[in-house]
Design brief:
- It is a single chain.
- The protein is of the alpha+beta class.
- 27% of the residues lie in helices and 25% in strands.
- The chain has a 7-stranded mixed barrel with strand order 12-13-14-15-16-18-17.
Length: 509
Amino acid sequence: MKGNIHTHFGAILIFCVFLAFSSCKEEPTIIEKPSPELLQFSLSAEKNPLQIVYTANGSIDDSSVTVRVENILSSYVLTPTIRFKGDSVTIANIRMDNVDHAFDFSQPQQLIVHSGKLRKEYIVSVLSYNGLPIVWIETKQREDIVSRDEFLTADFRLDDISTKVNIIGRGNSTWEVSPKKPYTLKFDEKRSLLTMPEDKSWVLLANFFDKTSLRNATAFYLSRLSLLDYTPRAEFIDLMLNGRYNGTYQLTEKIKIGKNRVNISNGYLLEIDAKYDENDSIIRTRHLIHPVNIKEPDNPSAGDVAYVRDYLTRFETVLYSDYFTDADSGWTAYMDLESAVDWYLVQEIAKNTDGAFFSSCYMTLAKGGKLQMGPVWDFDIAFGNVNYNDNWNPEGLFINGATWYSRLFQDPVFVAHVKQRYDYFYSHKYDIIAYINMQANKLRYSVEENEKRWGVFYTPTWPNYDIWGSYQNEVQSLKEWINRRMDWLKTEFNGLSIGETQDSPPSGK
């Protein structure tokens, strides 16, 4: 028994000694990997002597890097300088390994910082000069573009596109009055430009009268919210014309019949316009002040003209008849109700002087189909940017007094649809404001250079009502005008009575 006690005591003693010895032994140190983080991303003149003038330091946030190079880049293949916390960095799946690599930053690239099993991802965007795509156009021997009738052949470059283009002046008041000219481009073959689907014909809008450059874009945004079949797509660009920076432009789809444009077969593109050429195929109606121009097809036949004239005559006869509200034989048998309502609301929200059936009022007519309003076009003197017709004022109805519409407002069905659809547009009021902010932010550098070129912010340009003195103030004024306009229309349409219109004067730009 005693031997067993001693044996157990000895075993316990050995075990305690072992525990004591074990507690004195140091635990192995676990080295934790640092959290991966990008500390610096820059493009230096030292590593990119042909492309960079001044070193451009990237702005780094949680998941993106934005680098603004303050000169025009002819090539986006650039070698970056990088500092980071972690083991390694990959760009476009290529590991840097302390060796300089050149990458094509014409499109955003993925950068990943690795630290052990951890990784941190960033999207790197390189913006050249003003942050906008740059269109380069150079005519033969740098000949000036002085005609709206004869095309000049020019070299054209945009991103990876380098080709020939035909260029001509366009517009009415903008061509005659504005020193910053708009242009029409026509390629020999269909081209897809930036994010827009392919076609031969394009437009460069100058937006000279609009100090924000955003009114056309805002109207297009409203149109995209609508039920209209087609809205021209557009992207802001900087234009280098014959070796000289020419300012901020909108590269825009030209309104024409086509698969990627006004997609109607066996039909007509029509425009109500006070200004037309003697060779245009125009049709005068009994009730419209200005004629309807058959824009397409080009050189319409006598049969085409007769078809459109006959259709418009029958439509107006019914519209001004005693039975014009009849659901089966009234005006809706000839004109599409949805497009008539939504086209009206885009124009009325903008209080567009030209939209009162003065100019750029487009319609389509497919054989066997109904007359449809749209697409929308030409809003540079809309949204309060005009000093006549009281259209600087965010209050007051205007478009509903335009001939056909003054009659449509006597139809309770049309009025009910206007009220219903306006509630939809009103529900998107702050989306419209947010869109303006987003576009203004995109243009913030370009407009600075445009101002150096044209000097518009402190100078009255026809037909400005107010001069706010800076781009930020001009944008703020536009947003406040839209906010007041849409609030006023909300109250007005809620209490609108059938037949309540305002006579719109026929004057325009």
